[in-house]
Structures are given as C-alpha cells and as structure tokens.
C-alpha cells in the first residue's frame, strides 16, 4: 500500500513543484527585464527615445533597404537563371529568355511593393524617390535618407546573388540590339517616365482602388522590361544598374545613361503630372471612382437640403403677411 501511495504522492506533488519552479523563474525573468528597462531609461528602446521625425526617417530607410534588397535579389536571380548559359555576342534575341527576365522583374516588384507600400511606400528606385519628392508625395529630407539606402541595397542584392549562384554574375545592364548610347538614353528615359507616371496616378493620388496599385505598377514595369530588356537591359533604376557593376568591378563607358535616363524620365513624369494638376484633371472626366455608398450619401444630403428648404417655405407661409420682414 505504501508503494502505491508513493507514486500517487509524487504525481500530485509534481505539478505544484513545476508551478513553484515556473513562478521562481518567471519572477527572476521579470526582475531582469525591469532592470534592463530601468537601465534603458523609462522602459523604452533606444530607437523609441528618438524624436518622431528622425525615428520615422530611420525606419523608412531600413524598410526601403530591405524592400529594395528583396526586389532586386529576386530580379537578379531570375535574370541570372535566364542568362545561363551566356548567349554569344551578336546572336539574335532569345524571346523566351527576355520574357523570363521581364517576368522576374515584374513579379518581384509587384510582390515587394504590395508587402512594403503600407510601410515605406514601396519605392525601391531612386528615380521614383525623386518623383515623389517633386510631386509632394514624400518630404525631401526623407528622400535624402532613402536614396542612398536604395543604392546600397542594390549592391548588397547583387553581392548575395553572386555568392549564392554558380558562375559569374550575369545580370548587368548593357546596350544591345545595335542601340546607340543616345538611343539607350532616351529608351531609359521614356520607359522610366511611363513607370513613374503610373506610380504617381495609382499610388500617390489616392482613389478607391489604391490598394490594388502594386498590381498596376508591376504590370507597368513588366511591359517596360519587355521593351527595354533587349536594347538597354531594362534598367529604369540606377540602383539596379549600379549593383551588378560594383560586384563585377566593370563599368561600361556609357554607365551614366542608367542614371541620367531614369532621372530625366522621373522629371518628365513629374512635370506632366504637375501640368495635369494645373488644369484640374479630376474635373475633366469625373465620376471614375463611382461608389454606391458615396452616391447614396450625396442623395441623402440633397434630400436633406430639399427638406430644409421646404420647411423654411412652409414656415414663411404660416406667418401672417403683415409680420414678414
């Protein structure tokens, strides 16, 4: 009987012992946490003690670095796969490879913009950053913080792709298809202008379907890549061209077109948007953001105005004529 009682006692005492052990450990962890918070000052992390403006700019910088890195990592990786093995110089365009690369860039941008547009706006491109600063979508100080983060992220993404995948890094932007430097410059400018204008109208200008802006932006970039990939490499982004060239330690003499072209395209799209704002573009074709709730709200307001007008008229009708002012 004593042998049967001992396991029962142990079985009953075990939970209480575990509870005491947990309570002791929990109290020690709590005291350690309180000590850490007290040593940190007011129980806040160092980042939270910064002024709001500086903290938000730093968070935006970190978010843009991570987002740009992810976007360009998957884009470079897709291009690396499509260019393996490297086609010989002067060979005709391989449309399946070009389509594969364009899809890699388009889908990578769509996914990461959708993931980050509520955090930082999902820019991932110095040319887009410039456009938002010019159109009022981003404070200039934040733009100055984000710009270098995007460039460094492009270099980091190219370095990781070079380290992960066998063979030389083969995702640099180069002129092809017999395109001259001037032609490459204007191709980059117009393709970037189209992309930036789509970003402004779908993401910067708020409307009923702003949450779907990443889809339209990704499709716009995909279309631009279909055109530009063969002739210029389809950069549209200084960070996209800078990263592989830094890792490969190889800069062509016309590398500058991948900076000047996208930035000129950004200026062109921003100027066109400013012109549209000047002529009040939203009044040219009104009602595009049709919404049944909005229409019902307007009708109720109009009905309320009619009711008030009718009540005022009835009140004046009830007043004797000699009492009218």
From TrEMBL:
<feature type="signal peptide">
    <location>
        <begin position="1"/>
        <end position="19"/>
    </location>
</feature>
<protein>
    <recommendedName>
        <fullName>Aquaporin</fullName>
    </recommendedName>
</protein>
<dbReference type="Pfam" id="PF00230">
    <property type="entry name" value="MIP"/>
</dbReference>
<keyword id="KW-0732">Signal</keyword>
<keyword id="KW-0812">Transmembrane</keyword>
<comment type="similarity">
    <text>Belongs to the MIP/aquaporin (TC 1.A.8) family.</text>
</comment>
<keyword id="KW-0325">Glycoprotein</keyword>
<feature type="transmembrane region" description="Helical">
    <location>
        <begin position="144"/>
        <end position="165"/>
    </location>
</feature>
<feature type="transmembrane region" description="Helical">
    <location>
        <begin position="211"/>
        <end position="231"/>
    </location>
</feature>
<dbReference type="InterPro" id="IPR023271">
    <property type="entry name" value="Aquaporin-like"/>
</dbReference>
<keyword id="KW-0472">Membrane</keyword>
<dbReference type="InterPro" id="IPR034294">
    <property type="entry name" value="Aquaporin_transptr"/>
</dbReference>
<feature type="transmembrane region" description="Helical">
    <location>
        <begin position="256"/>
        <end position="276"/>
    </location>
</feature>
<dbReference type="GO" id="GO:0015250">
    <property type="term" value="F:water channel activity"/>
</dbReference>
<feature type="transmembrane region" description="Helical">
    <location>
        <begin position="185"/>
        <end position="204"/>
    </location>
</feature>
<keyword id="KW-1133">Transmembrane helix</keyword>
<feature type="transmembrane region" description="Helical">
    <location>
        <begin position="56"/>
        <end position="78"/>
    </location>
</feature>
<dbReference type="InterPro" id="IPR000425">
    <property type="entry name" value="MIP"/>
</dbReference>
<keyword id="KW-0677">Repeat</keyword>
<keyword id="KW-0813">Transport</keyword>
<dbReference type="GO" id="GO:0005886">
    <property type="term" value="C:plasma membrane"/>
</dbReference>
């Amino acid at each position: 009987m004593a042998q049967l009682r001992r396991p029962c006692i142990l079985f009953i005492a075990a939970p209480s012992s575990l509870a005491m052990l947990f309570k002791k450990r929990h109290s020690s962890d709590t005291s350690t946490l309180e000590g850490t918070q007290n040593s940190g000052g007011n129980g806040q992390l160092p980042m939270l003690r910064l002024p709001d403006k500086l903290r938000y700019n730093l968070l935006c910088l970190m978010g843009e670095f991570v987002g740009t890195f992810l976007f360009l990592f998957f884009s470079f990786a897709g291009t690396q796969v499509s260019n393996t093995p490297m086609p010989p110089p002067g060979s005709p365009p391989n449309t399946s490879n070009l389509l594969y690369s364009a899809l890699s860039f388009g889908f990578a941008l769509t996914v990461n913009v959708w993931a980050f547009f509520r955090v930082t706006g999902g820019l991932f491109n110095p040319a887009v950053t410039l456009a938002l600063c010019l159109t009022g979508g981003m404070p200039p100080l934040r733009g100055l913080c984000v710009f270098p983060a995007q460039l460094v992220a492009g270099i980091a993404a190219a370095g990781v792709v070079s380290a992960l995948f066998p063979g030389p890094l083969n995702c640099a932007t180069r002129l092809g298809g017999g395109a001259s430097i001037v032609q490459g410059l204007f191709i980059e400018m117009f393709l970037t202008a189209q992309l930036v204008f789509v970003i402004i109208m779908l993401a910067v200008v708020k409307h009923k379907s702003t949450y779907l802006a990443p889809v339209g932006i990704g499709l716009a970039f995909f279309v631009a890549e279909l055109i530009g990939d063969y002739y210029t490499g389809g950069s549209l982004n200084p960070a996209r061209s800078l990263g592989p060239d830094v890792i490969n330690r190889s800069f062509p003499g016309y590398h500058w077109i991948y900076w000047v072209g996208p930035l000129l395209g950004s200026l062109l799209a921003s100027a066109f948007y400013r012109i549209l704002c000047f002529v009040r573009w939203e009044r040219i074709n009104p009602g595009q953001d049709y919404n049944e709730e909005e229409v019902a709200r307007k009708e109720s307001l109009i009905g309320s105005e009619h009711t008030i007008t009718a009540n005022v008229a009835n009140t004046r009708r009830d007043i004797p004529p000699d009492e009218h002012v």
